[in-house]
Amino acid sequence: TESQTEVRKGLAGVVADYTAVSKVNPETNSLLYRGYPVQELAASCSMEQVALLLWTGELPTEEELAEFTARERAHRALTPELKAIVDALPTTCHPMDVCRTAASVLGAQDPEAEDSSPEANLRKAQKLFAAMPAVVCYDQRRRRGQEPVAPREDLGYSANFLWMAFGEEADPAVVEAFNVSMILYAEHSFNASTFTARVVTSTLSDLHSAVTAAIGALKGPLHGGANEAVMETFEELGIRADESPADAEARAKAWMEEALAAKKKIMGFGHRVYKHGDSRVPTMKAALDRMIDHYGRPELLGLYNGLEKAMGEAKDIKPNLDYPAGPTYWLMGFDIPTFTPLFVAARITGWTAHVMEQVAANSLIRPLSEYNGPDERHVPGA
Ligand code: SDX
Fold first, then answer.
1. Coiled-coil stretches, from where to where (predicted)?
2. What is the pLDDT of residues 151-200, one digit of tens each?
3. What is the DSSP letter of 32?
4. If residue 190 lies in a helix (H) or strand (E), which one and from where to where?
C-alpha cells in the first residue's frame, strides 16, 4: 500500500546506473576520471587531453592529440548565423540563456544532428567543445560594448579562451590556473545536469538536446550557478583592496555568523555527495592562492578564510568547488554572470561522455511517483 512505499526525495542515495566515466568517492574525498586521480590530471594535462580521456576512456597518444587539436582549432569560430542569433538576444538575459540557446542552434546547424552513432556523437561533442568558448567570450564582450576577438589557431584551448575573452595574451600562470579550473569542472558522475543529459538521451533524443537541457539544469544556484553566487557574497561583503587580510577575515566571519543565524543558505558550501569536503577544492584553492599572489589581492584570502572558518565552526559544512573557483574567475577579469558559462564550457566534455555511455547501454529513464493528491472523485453530472 502507498504508506509503505519509500520515496527518496531528490533521489538522494539512489544508484541509478553504472558509469565508467568517473568515480566520486565521498569516503576518501577522491575523484577519478576514467581511473586517473583528477589532481594528477590537473597537474600534468591540458584540457584537450582530459576531454579526449573522458570521451574515449584513454589518454591520447601524441598523434591522437595532434589530430584532435587541429580539428578543435578549426571549429572554434562562430558562424555568422549564430552570431546574429546571439546578437538578437537582449543583454538583460542571463549569459546562461545565451549558452543554452547557442547549444540548441549548434544542433540545428549540425548536419549530423540526428545521427547518434558513436562516431557522429563524438564529432558533435568535439565541435560543441570547440565552439562554446567563443560563445561565452563573444557574449561577455558584447555586453561590455567591446568588439569580438577572433580565435587564434596558434594557442591551446585555455590560452585561446582567455585571448578571446580579453583580447590580450594571458600570463602563463593565469593560463595554467584556468586550465586547472576547466579540468576540475569537466566531470562529476551523476550530478543534476549530467543526469538531465542522460534522461534526455534515454528517450533516444539527440546529443544537442541533451546538452541544451543540461545547461538549463546547471544554471540553478544549487548547482553550477553557485560559482556566481559565491562572488556575489564576496561583493556583498565588500572587497577592499586596502584592507588587511586579518581585518577582511574578521569581517567575513561576522557576516557569516549573522547569515547563518538568519538561516541563510550559503552558496559554495555543502554537497549532496561529499560530506567531509569536496575532492577538488584543495587543487582549486591552490590555483586561487597563485592567482591572489599574481594579482596582489591578499584581502580576498582574508574574506575566503573568514567565511570558510565561520561555516566550519558553526555547522561543519565544507566548501565545494564553486567556492574557490568564483574568486579565481573574478581575479582573472571575468564578469560574474559569465562564471557559470565557464562551467558549461568545461562540463560539455563530461555531459557528452555520459550521453555516449547512455546511448551505448540505453534504458529509458522513467521512475515512479507516489500519488498524494485527492482520492478518486467525480465530475458533477458525469
Ligand atoms: C555543484 O552533484 C554534484 O556533483 C554537483 C557538482 C558538480 O560538479 O556537478 O559538484 C557542482 O553543484 C556544487 C554545489 C553547488 N551548490 C551550492 O554551493 C549551493 C549551496 N549548497 C547547498 O544548498 C547544498 O549543500 C547542496 C544543494 C549542494 C546539497 O544539498 P543537500 O544534499 O540536498 O543537503 P541539504 O540542503 O538538505 O542540507 C543538509 C543540511 C541542512 O541542515 P539541516 O536542515 O539538516 O539542519 O545541511 C545544511 C542544510 O540547511 N546545509 C547548509 C548548506 N548546505 C547544507 N546550510 C547553509 N548553507 C549551505 N550551503
1. none
2. 999 999 999 999 999 999 999 999 999 999 999 999 999 999 999 999 99
3. E
4. none
Nearest alpha carbon, ligand 1 atom 20: 267
Q: Note whether 17-222+338-360 and 226-332 share their fold.
A: no
How far is residue 274 CA from its own chain's centroid?
A: 17
The ipTM assigned to this model is: 0.98
In degrees and rounded to multiples of 5, residue 195 shows phi and psi of -65, -40
Rounded distance between C-alpha atoms, residue 373 and residue 97, angstroms: 34
Give the pLDDT of residue 275. Answer: 86
313-319: long-range contacts, CB 8 A cutoff, minimum separation 24: 314/256, 314/257, 314/260, 315/260, 317/269, 317/270, 318/269, 318/270, 318/271, 318/274, 318/276, 318/277, 318/278, 318/281, 319/268, 319/269, 319/277, 319/278, 319/281
CATH 3.30.565.10 applies to domain 17-222+338-360: no
Residue 212 in this model has a pLDDT that exceeds 70: yes
What nine digits make up the cell of 295?
A: 594579482
So where are the chain's domains? 17-222+338-360, 226-332
Ligand 1 pocket test, pick from 30, 181, 272 with the greatest ligand atom count within 8 Å of Cβ, gives: 272
**Ligand 1 atom nearest 189 alpha carbon:** 4
Name the residue with the closest Cα to ligand 1, atom 32: 272
pLDDT per residue over 117-141, tens digit each?
999 999 999 999 999 999 999 999 9
Residue 31 and residue 24 in contact, taking contact as beta carbons nearer than 8 Å: yes
pLDDT digits (tens, 9 = 90+) for 78-92: 999 999 999 999 999
| 226-332 has CATH 3.40.50.720 classification | no
